[in-house]
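By convention, the token line describes the chain's fold. To illustrate:
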Amino acid sequence: MATPVQDTTMNASLPAAARHAALVAELCRYIDAAETPPTLDQLAARAGLSAWHLQRVFKAATGLSPRAWAAARRAERLRTALAGGARVTDALYEAGYGSSGRLYEDADAALGMSPGQYRAGGRDAEIRFALGQCSLGAILVARSVRGVCAIALGDDPQALLDELQARFPAATLIGADADFEALVARVVGLVEAPATGADLPLDIRGTAFQQRVWQALRRIPPGETVSYAELARRIGAPAAVRAVAGACAANPLAVAIPCHRVVRSDGGLAGYRWGVARKRALLEREGAR
């Protein structure tokens, strides 16, 4: 039988949102520590909620279902093991996958390529890219077979390309064709008018914590800003303000994942991966309050 969450987590004196955030944070720790992913029913019993209610509370706090969270954590362990040079079979069991068949079924979602390709730095994987100019300077857009995996802004196009190559050191980088140029135009349109949004296919790769932060970022409406502290509270990790800032800084998809909408507690503009001046310009275009 699952051990219920401690009463301190469900302190009735706290607002409902705070209780839910604390509950989800505890369940995330429980999932992380489990040898095999707990079922939704097991998590619901631990939380003292119905499975339906838990699913809603968990997804509202993290942007992911409990099952997707567990999968993201497995993928994170898999990436770490493969990047460290572990054999695919060893990495499989170290990450908590039950069989090689299951691993290869989930590899596309977890890695964006086969485990062997990932271990070899993206060998034989194809990344299409284009460099261009927009009102904020140089722009690089790259896409894997799954979706847009990089949107970068800067002053030096070569530096943006070097950064992409460093992310995928053994992948084949392919210059844009006519079809890809249409996608680039959509991305540039998003940069020029970020408040309009864009339904872009995204290949979002990151740790479970990063994905949790990035999901929360995507829920911030255009024209609004939140502080790093508030963002940390929204994902149920109020003490993880620095880690939240780190996840924002690691965001590889400028504007599509709107980390420019996060500011200091005093409203000031903190660092931005692509430059504070660009952050200010994006917020001005959105009419941010």
Notes: The first strand starts at residue 126 and ends at 134. Confidence is low (pLDDT under 50) at residues 6-10. DSSP finds 13 helices and six strands in the chain. The domain at 16-62 is CATH 1.10.10 (Arc Repressor Mutant, subunit A).
